[in-house]
Amino acid sequence: MALNQTNGGMNGQEVQKEALETSLFHNLKPSPEPLAYTPEIARATAPLYEKVAGVIPKIEWAAYAPTIYAINELKKARGAVILGHSYMTPEIYHCVSDFTGDSLMLARKAAEADADIIVQAGVHFMAETSKILCPDKTVLIPDLRAGCSLAESITGADVRMLKKRYPGVPVVTYVNTSADVKAECDICCTSSNAVQVVESLNAPRVILLPDEFLAKNVATMTDVEIISWKGRCEVHEKFTVEDITELRDANPGIVVLAHPECPPDVMAASDFAGSTSDMSNYVKQHQPESAVLITECSMSDNVAVENPQVDFIRPCNLCPHMKRITLDNILHSLQTMTFEVTIEPEIAARARVAVQRMIDLPASTVAGPKFRINQPAADVTLVA
Ligand code: 13P
Ligand code: SF4
């Protein structure tokens, strides 16, 4: 059947577009056939390809473009927004995400989102944070297995045990935790505000959970005594000072930027340390000739897109959890409205107090000290 025979006034391109939209929206079972790279899709996605041409080979674009097109159309039809973390691959981060950034930025964007549906292109604790902040919105995660070694290192029962052991000591939990854990704490923090959150409590001792290395890095920046937990990020714990020495030897003048989930000696050997957004902003502002981001692999690709004149050296470690999110499962998520993230209302209400307290910190507090490198190591009490 010639499609345009049934659609009076439309030309061939309009008919194809309508047929694609209809099939995207109504075909709740994703087609086993790959979507075709038609001339119309090539044209519609050309501006997006221009953006990522430096990091995605042309030959791969033909495989990505139809799904990107389909996601962007279906997103509009559903009234959904996609929140893309800095560790998403560039075709997700730059081509289908409505808001991008570090976990703090995404939490803020979730709270402000003018949409009924949020698709979290990130890991499960991020989707839970969105749901905590937006209990009336539908929050979807494209793969429920997208976890986090830090979030899995601690439970709500562990926090209750710590509160019994250290009565009256305020509890800060890193946003990389489950809703159960957040519900037990006084306030949350992220890697971009951990020092300021700890200091905002005006307490001589604070429990900061669950990342041993983040806690040790925060301890170098404050006189507050820190009690922490032996959780680690399986991606950042692998970096060593030897890696940095080798990088500097092979690339004289290179600027080394590290995430504060790295071990303290790696932070001390770097030129700058901060959250994923802090690293990205540093590169934008300073435009170093060459740089290395001591963090997850996709970060360099995403920052390179915005800083084409900076030469990125790319030894990195992949986060297997972040990499569970793909274009295909984002499309599937929008087609089937899966997987919906739900939290028991009583837990969500308590967790919301802690997340909202972090978001509501006054701008003057958040503008406080960032991580400095070359700090002497500081003591932290580790439990577990
Ligand atoms: P950011 O808060 O810096 O985005 O980090 C989140 C994360 O999971 C890092 O491993
Ligand atoms: Fe968790 Fe580390 Fe992966 Fe971030 S990079 S999601 S902290 S395992």
Topology, element by element:
Elements: H1 12-26, H2 39-52, H3 58-78, E1 80-85, H4 90-93, E2 99-101, H5 103-112, E3 117-121, H6 124-133, E4 138-140, H7 156-165, E5 171-174, H8 179-183, E6 187-189, H9 194-200, E7 205-209, H10 212-219, E8 225-229, H11 241-250, E9 255-258, H12 264-268, E10 272-273, H13 276-286, E11 290-294, H14 297-306, E12 311-312, H15 327-336, H16 345-359, H17 363-366, E13 381-383
Parallel strand pairs: 1-2, 1-3, 3-4, 5-6, 5-7, 7-8, 8-13, 9-10, 9-11, 11-12
The structure holds 1,3-dihydroxyacetonephosphate and iron/sulfur cluster.
1,3-dihydroxyacetonephosphate binds at residues 86, 102-103, 176, 190-191, 233, 259, 261, 275-276.
**Cα-atom Rg, whole angstroms?**
22 Å
Query: Helix content range of the residues, please?
Result: 40-55%
Shape: globular
Instruction: Give the biggest beta sheet.
Output: 5 strands, parallel
Mean pLDDT score: 91
Largest sheet: spatial strand order: 6-5-7-8-13
Order of helices and strands: HHHEHEHEHEHEHEHEHEHEHEHEHEHHHE
CATH fold name of the domain at 3-146 and 323-336: Rossmann fold
Number of helices in the DSSP assignment: 17
